[in-house]
Specification:
Blueprint lengths: L5 H5 L7 H15 L8 H17 L2 H10 L5 H12 L7 H11 L18 E7 L1 H6 L1 E12 L15 E2 L8 E6 L2 E6 L8 E2 L12 E12 L8 E4 L15 E7 L6 E3 L2 E9 H6 L1 E7 L2 E7 L8 E4 L16 E8 L6 H14 L5 H21 L1
Length: about 375
């Protein structure tokens, strides 16, 4: 039976790059993987086909020969590849195991790589800040509970003067070879968990763990303009790695507290400022709040509630937008008096009687529209 074109097998174009080939193979391999299709000979053959296509197209030399001569250019090599695989020779599967592990990682419970030490875990610290602190930036001191590499054994876990010895299960490789259907893959050693070694004489300070639990004080500089949800990364201040491997990182997550006056939107600030009826009617100059003190705003005569005044440069920095500050938007709210004495009420009534509706053009227009509506409804009911 003639073989299908490798590009057709993976469903890709002939000019596909390495990432496209890997994505296509991952999709097909997951679909036809023997663990997902037990005792399915068709799926097993399809899996073999897509794996062969991937092995050829990800090797520049093989791909060049295949593009020039077709299957004839690589058939001999592929027969040798699968033939040695059928014999379950560990060397025969080295390249294949690396290829499969590189694509899938630990998805099916195995690891094609050879790393013996695990990088330390990243840590997260939630830091609540006020808007003023975030706008100006500040240096904070944090107390972080974490694991740090043991100073006595320097992370090896072994008593000073002794050394870890090779693991009996994996022979020091950190991996064991397992049979998966018709091919072999390598898993992380269940005994040493990938370290490749075991401790015969544990360190007395860390009991062989290579790490100790501590509480470390760190000074962190939070930049000006940091926003809610931002993260400040502190390299190497996460958990210590196992057996002397690199530490993880610390991520300080910023959460902004609710402000009594301002709301932040990017680099801009918004606030609502009440002004009195006389101030809005006659016009006035009022003090508006900013994060840096008060500024004067001129309220023109006849200002209505809801009008917004823009104060350029009175917002905050935004670390994502550069060095220019945003703006402050002040929304005017007309304050209605709630407590008045008799004289004040009489003065207000006198004004209302004197002014009527003529001084309120919006109200006069609205009342006119309402009158027409009521007239139309009255005519329809007759």
């Amino acid at each position: 039976m003639s073989k299908r074109d490798y590009y057709e097998v993976l469903g890709i174009a002939k000019d596909a790059d390495a990432n496209t080939i890997k994505r296509a193979y991952r999709k097909m391999a997951m679909k036809y993987h023997p663990d997902r299709n037990p005792d399915d000979k068709v799926a097993a053959e399809n899996f073999r086909e897509v794996t062969e296509a991937y092995e050829v197209l990800t090797d520049d030399n093989k791909r060049a020969r295949y593009n020039q001569y077709g299957h004839a250019g690589v058939d001999e090599q592929m027969q040798d590849f699968w033939g040695r695989g059928g014999a379950q020779d560990s060397n025969a599967f080295r390249d294949f195991g690396d290829m499969f592990g590189d694509v899938f990682g630990d998805m099916f419970g195995f690891n094609g790589g050879g790393g013996r030490s695990a990088r330390g875990a990243d840590l997260r610290y939630n830091l609540a800040m006020s808007l003023e602190e975030a706008a100006q930036g500040r240096e904070v001191e944090l107390k972080i509970p974490k694991h740090e590499s043991c100073n006595t054994c320097h992370g090896s876990g072994a008593r000073p003067g002794s050394n870890p010895v090779p693991c009996n299960t994996c022979g020091g490789h950190g991996q064991v070879q397992m049979q998966q259907g018709f091919f072999a893959v390598r898993r992380t050693c269940p005994t040493c968990h990938g370290a490749g070694t075991r401790i015969e004489s544990p360190c007395v300070d860390c009991s062989g763990a290579g790490r100790n639990k501590i509480s470390k004080k760190l000074k962190i500089k939070v930049p000006a303009g940091v926003y809610d949800g931002a993260q400040v990364r502190v390299s190497g201040e996460g958990e210590a790695g196992q057996h002397g491997s690199p530490s993880g990182d610390l991520y300080v997550a910023i959460g902004l507290k609710e402000h009594a006056i301002f709301e932040r939107e990017g680099a801009d600030l918004h606030c609502t400022m009440p002004v009195t009826f006389p101030q809005a009617t006659l016009g006035s100059e009022v003090d508006a709040p900013t994060l840096n003190g008060k500024v004067k705003i001129k309220i023109p005569a006849g200002t209505e509630g809801g009008r917004v005044f823009r104060l350029r440069g009175h917002g905050v920095l935004d670390v994502r937008a550069g060095t220019q500050k945003g703006d402050l938007y002040v929304r005017v709210q007309i304050a209605v008096p709630k407590k008045m004495n008799s004289r004040q009420k009489n003065l207000l009534r006198e004004f209302a009687n004197e002014a009527g509706d003529d001084v309120y053009p919006e109200r006069s227009s609205f009342l006119g529209k309402v009158k027409h509506l009521w007239d139309d409804l009255s005519n329809e009911s007759k």
